[in-house]
Specification:
It contains four helices and seven strands; from the N terminus they run βααβββαβαββ. It is an alpha+beta fold. The chain has two domains: 1-97, Gcn5-related N-acetyltransferase (GNAT) (Aminopeptidase, 3-Layer(aba) Sandwich); 99-143. The chain has a seven-stranded mixed sheet with strand order 1-2-3-4-5-7-6, sandwiched between helices.
């Protein structure tokens, strides 16, 4: 198992993983366009050519914004998410990252628990942020 930056060959697997895990995807075109985006840092967990985890981020030199993050439902509760995020934080801190933020569904207790464990704090709530009317918690981590 390795953590690495994604490639064009990974995109179909990432889209499938997002749809399976999140019920939606950023989409093939978005992920393909981000291959040339200098602010995009997108990583996968590759287990023998099977993408079992993924995180898409935008990094402006100081702030890491997490766009999408998921672990295969079959591989959850094995600390893979924590490992993936810590890898990203470690790498981007070397380039000057000072903080990270994200939105998470208010009803996603498992994700909120993971983010809390990593040190994220709730800084805001976005009412009816998601298409189904669910609120989003805005979380921030200061390094």
């Amino acid at each position: 198992m390795i953590i690495r930056k994604y490639t064009k060959e990974d995109i179909n697997k990432i889209v499938s993983l997002e749809e399976e895990s999140l019920g939606h995807s950023l989409g093939y075109d978005f992920l393909e366009s981000y291959l040339s985006n200098m602010m995009a840092y997108i990583y996968v967990i590759d287990d023998n050519n099977d993408i079992i985890g993924y995180v898409s981020t935008v990094f402006d030199g100081e702030i890491i914004e997490i766009l999408n993050f998921c672990i295969s439902p079959k591989r959850r509760r094995c600390h893979l998410g924590e490992t993936l995020l810590n890898h990203v934080f470690s790498e981007l801190k070397e380039y000057g990252a000072k903080s990270s933020f994200l939105e998470v569904r208010d009803d996603n207790v498992a994700a909120i628990s993971l983010y809390s464990k990593l040190g994220y704090k709730k800084i805001n709530v976005r009412k009816q942020y998601y298409s189904d009317g669910c609120d989003a918690q805005v979380l921030q981590l200061i390094f």
